[in-house]
Structures are given as C-alpha cells and as structure tokens.
Amino acid sequence: MAAGYETTSTALAYATYELARHPEVLHKLQAEIDQLPLDNDDMSNEETKKYLDYDIVAQMNYMDMFVSEVLRMYPIANTVIQRRASEDTVVQGIQIKKGTLVQADVYSVHYDRELWGPEDPYVFFPERHQTKRHPMAYLPFGAGPRHCIGMRFALIEMKILLVRLLREYSILPGEHLESKFNIRERAVITPEEVWVKLVKRSD
Ligand code: HEM
C-alpha cells in the first residue's frame, strides 16, 4: 500500500504545491492540456476514455518535464534506495566491506549544479529536462535491476490525474501554503500539509 498509493499521492501533493507557487508553469501545463484532442462527451464511454487517457499522456512534452521536475526536487523515496554489498569491494577508492549497507544520497545528486545546471537546481524549472543529463543524475525511482517496479504506472496515474484536474481547475496558493508545508520523513518524505485553492476555470 505504501509503495503503490502513498508515493503517487505524495508526489501529486508536491505537484500542486509547485503549481500554486508558479502560475507561469500552471498556464503552460493548462495550455498543453487544452490542446489535447479530447471530446469531453466521449468520457461517458469507458473504452474511449481508457484509450484517450493513455494516448494523451504519452504525447505531452511539457507535462513530462513538469512531473520529472517535481520528482527531481522531491525524491520522496530516497530512503529506500539501499544496497548491501555481497562481497568486499572498492568504489572510487572507498573500501566497502561485505555486508555493508550503502544508502544513495539522492538529494545531493538531484541538486548538483554540475549535473543539473546551468539553471539553479534549487529553482523549479521544468525546461531543464530538455537537456540530456548523465544517466545516473535522475534517481527518483532508483536504478538497476531493483528499481521501482511501479514507475510507469505511477507516471501515467499522476499525469492522467493532472490532466483531469487542470482541465477544470486552476490552482492558487492557499492561506498557509508555506507555513504548513514542513517536509517530514515518514514512510516517504512528505509535506505536512499543502494549502491550495482550486478555482473553477470557467468562473
Ligand atoms: C511517484 C511514485 C513512486 C516513486 C517516486 C517510487 C520510488 C521507488 C524507489 C526509489 C524504489 C527503490 C528503488 C531502488 O532501490 O533502486 C521503489 C521500489 C519499489 N516500488 Fe516504487 N515508487 C513510486 C510508485 C510506485 C507504485 C505506484 C508502485 C506499485 C504499484 C511501486 C512499487 C514498488 C515496488 C514493489 C518496489 C520494490 C522493487 C524491488 O525491490 O524490486 N512504486 N520505488
């Protein structure tokens, strides 16, 4: 349950936080969503709905960069990326004894200026994902044969939710957006509360 639900919902909480803080990002995302060839009347048909949803999210470049940037800045499952050495080894001059537990420091990698510049890695900037990066620079889902098994499902789920939400609503900062945010380490690394306002777009 923690791997399947807590992760995706927490990542979406961070997504709404960043959308509330960056109206220009929200507008770009809504512009991409508004161009999608989706007829809302078709949503009553289950088969059409399934086909359109998958098809939609696969072709959304800005959405992909947006979600990637959310997970770069908030690698919510950093603490589970661990490996135990099965034999004595040396990595970059560091001796690692058999049985040692090694924890990946994903935050340092995701906020590294050389890997993620020239734009400040502490700034939310989806377009940085247009540039090809080092294959190990982006680790929200871990790496190697034991990387997240639910990655593709999680990405599709998040993108579909964002399409449906942002098609109808805009997200504005709520009263306590910053003061209640307070990131905490629980089952995943999560904000305490995300205060946003949903405003119907047709209003
Ligand atoms: C945004 C959403 C998610 C994030 C950021 C995330 C992240 C991670 C990370 C970092 C790992 C450890 C990978 C490693 O050690 O290299 C992992 C493992 C795992 N994840 Fe996810 N995950 C997400 C969603 C999901 C979903 C939706 C499912 C299931 C439907 C899932 C199932 C699993 C499982 C079963 C493992 C263990 C894989 C193994 O040990 O072989 N995850 N995830």
From TrEMBL:
Keywords for this protein: Heme, Iron, Metal-binding, Monooxygenase, Oxidoreductase
Which metal ions or organic cofactors does this protein require, according to UniProt?
A: heme
Q: Which InterPro entries match?
A: Cyt_P450, Cyt_P450_CS, Cyt_P450_E_grp-I, Cyt_P450_sf, Cytochrome_P450_3A
**Can the keyword Heme be found in this entry's annotation?**
yes
Residues annotated as coiled-coil are none
Among the Pfam families in the record, one is p450
Is Glycosyltransferase among this UniProt entry's keywords? no
Instruction: Check the record and name the SUPFAM superfamilies matching this protein.
Output: Cytochrome P450
Q: Which family does it belong to?
A: Belongs to the cytochrome P450 family.
Q: What is this protein called?
A: Cytochrome P450
Taxonomic placement: Eukaryota, Metazoa, Spiralia, Gnathifera, Rotifera
